[in-house]
Structures are given as C-alpha cells and as structure tokens.
C-alpha cells in the first residue's frame, strides 16, 4: 500500500497526526532547512525537489516529487511530511530512509518549512 493510500484509508498515524511546526518560518529557519535539504535530500529528490536527483534515478519507485506538498494546506502537509521524514518509506516499498534518529525535531521542521516555502520559487527550474 502506498503512503497516500494509507493516509486516505486510515489517516496519518496517531503519533504524527497532531504535530504542528513549533515556530514561524523565519529566514533563519528556512536557511537551516535549505542546509538540511542539501545534506540529506538533494541526492534523491534533486535540488528542486522534483525527484530527479542523481541517486534517485536508480530507485524504484522513484523519489517523490515534492512540489505538490507546497500546495497542500500546512495543517495537513506538516504532519504528513514529518511522518514521512521520520519513518521513511520502508513499509511502503520505498528506499526513503528514516531520519528520526539523524535529524532533530528542529531540523525536521526546518526542512519541512523549506520544502513548503521554497518549492513555489523553484517551479520554474524544471
């Protein structure tokens, strides 16, 4: 079952469903998120988040195109993204690693803010 199907049928798992970003999206938070994205996400998702990173080209299923998350309401995308980043995709047959031990909650929320805020600016870079 794909992650989106699981959410449609059962919702986001309880430990993540009520999570909300703890602070406003300041320039510092977005900058920190950009650094986390470059370090941990670009290889698979690509610099624009379209799932076109060099390491992602060999993956099946391919890395997610993150652009759609920028359009999703933040009260829904935040918990979904946090769950995805924390737990990874193993249970869904995806190579997305779990980052719950590698990233702090602050780093996780920063990269979520960066993806949500920055993808709109990168849409023209396809």
Question: How is the topology of this model organized?
Answer:
Layout: H1 3-10, H2 14-17, H3 27-40, H4 42-45, H5 67-71, H6 74-87, H7 105-122
Helix pairs in contact: 3-7, 6-7
Please provide a brief summary of the model.
The protein has about 130 residues and is mainly α.
Structural commentary:
The N and C termini lie far apart (about 30 Å). This protein is an all-alpha fold and about 130 residues long. It is globular. Helix 6 (about 75-85) crosses helix 7. It has 7 helices and no strands. The protein has one domain: Cytochrome Bc1 Complex, Chain D, domain 2. About 25% of the residues are buried.
Features:
126 residues, mainly alpha, Cytochrome Bc1 Complex, Chain D, domain 2, 7 helices, globular
Order of helices and strands: HHHHHHH
What can be said about the biggest beta sheet?
none
Beta percentage is under 5%
Task: Determine the mean pLDDT.
Answer: 88
In CATH, the homologous superfamily goes by the name Cytochrome c-like domain
Number of strands: 0
Q: In one word, what is the shape?
A: globular
- The top-level CATH class is Mainly Alpha
- The tally of structural domains comes to 1
- Global structural class: mainly alpha
Query: What's the N-to-C terminus distance?
Result: 29 Å
Low-pLDDT regions: none
Q: Return the CATH architecture.
A: Orthogonal Bundle
Radius of gyration in whole Å, from Cα? 14 Å
Helical residues, percent: 40-55%
- CATH overall fold name: Cytochrome Bc1 Complex, Chain D, domain 2
Number of H- or I-type helical stretches: 7
């Amino acid at each position: 079952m794909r992650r989106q199907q699981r959410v449609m049928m059962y919702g986001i798992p309880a430990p993540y469903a009520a999570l909300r970003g703890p602070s406003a999206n300041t320039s510092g938070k977005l900058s920190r998120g950009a650094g986390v994205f470059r370090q941990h996400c670009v290889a698979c998702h690509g610099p624009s988040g379209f799932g076109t990173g060099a390491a992602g080209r060999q993956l099946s299923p391919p890395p997610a195109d993150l652009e759609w998350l920028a359009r999703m309401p933040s009260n829904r995308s935040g918990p979904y993204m946090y769950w995805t980043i924390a737990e990874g995709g193993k249970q869904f047959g995806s190579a997305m690693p779990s980052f719950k031990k590698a990233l702090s909650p602050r780093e996780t929320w920063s990269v979520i803010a960066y993806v949500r805020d920055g993808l709109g600016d990168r849409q023209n870079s396809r």
